[in-house]
Amino acid sequence: MRSQAREDFKMCYYWIQAPAGKKVEVTIDKISKGFAVDGCRYGGVEIKTNKDQRLTGYRFCAPEDAGKKLVSYSNRVPIVTFNRLYATKVVLKYRAV
């Protein structure tokens, strides 16, 4: 395992899409331990439920964030997992509402 932070983030991108006219509800089920630092500078998940998805979304990086729910503005939600140290494990639940 890597013990020193990388200079750049490793990132994975996902899209969740509901049928037209519906929204997406995303619930954080689980997040890896060890990333809960201000600004999530070592790793976490970014969930873009805002109207303007070009902007930074809501970032989560603490196990205590489990249970948080977000509802999208539209029928599409970009999800970005990111880390500079070790690996980030995030479990999300989602559904159309």
Automatic annotation (TrEMBL):
Start and end residues of each CUB domain: 1-97
InterPro entries, per database record: CUB_dom, Sperma_CUB_dom_sf
Keywords per UniProt: Disulfide bond
Classification via PROSITE patterns: CUB (PS01180)
Domain of life according to the entry: Eukaryota
Any matching Pfam family: CUB
Name of the protein this chain belongs to: CUB domain-containing protein
Species name: Oesophagostomum dentatum (Nodular worm)
